Amino acid sequence: MSEPPKVEVDSDLNAAGALVVSCFPSIGFVSSIVAHYLVDKLDLKLVGGVRHPKLPPVCLVQDGKPLPPMRFYSGDPICNMERCDKVVLIASEIQVVPELNLPLADTLLDWCAESGVGATILIDSYAQGIGQQHSIFDDDETKESMLGIGSTEASHKTLAGLGVPLLKQGVVGGITGVMMGESRRREIDVMAILAESDGEIGGSLPDARAAARIIECLDELLPAVHLDPEPLLAEAQRIEGEIREMMAVHLNPPSDAEGAPSSMYG
Fold it and tell me: Which of 3, 19, 200, 265 has the fewest Cβ atoms surrounding its Cβ within 10 A?
């Protein structure tokens, strides 16, 4: 059996009481847009990442500096949740291969438990139709739904306070689905917020409006820093330009791709 993924962060990182925000690839680039926005607006600093042989053999480059494909950021804005006084962001543009979903979920939940974090929020999105990663039954006929999943009664209360209705029925796949199932089994306080999106994974345009709806929810949890979603709409094309190549080509190439380019552009 291969070694599990390893979280390697700065030795002086104190995540006790932190709100952990996890952003893995999602429909319409929603979680990636949210991650890039939070790093910029909260002035979060790179503090480590996740290592495993089955992660893509690449580094991201931004402003001339290399970044691991699965990264941890941290900062100290005040959080408005009980037991929470700082933020840790987990950001990645890569699609987690199926065989890594459970080992990675275990590694991340172990790290959260050992570090004494206050709560964890998974940022994701969904779209209606056949062939989607998530099969969600949405009673809201609009295309601007927000739905939540919580592993504990405490997380259900938090979602209710944010005005996010609970998902009544559906199937959630990928790392979000695995982490939610494992967190309930282990009685760890984890919640997921999913925004309905018109986009697609690997599509050409981001769904900035769906990302802005999530930003508005997070703004309720971070009163020390006003997260204005309006600039996000204006910055959508700039953010998309930074992440489109990383997600759609270099980090998640098609299975039949041949002669893929060896360079990456930030």
Answer: 3
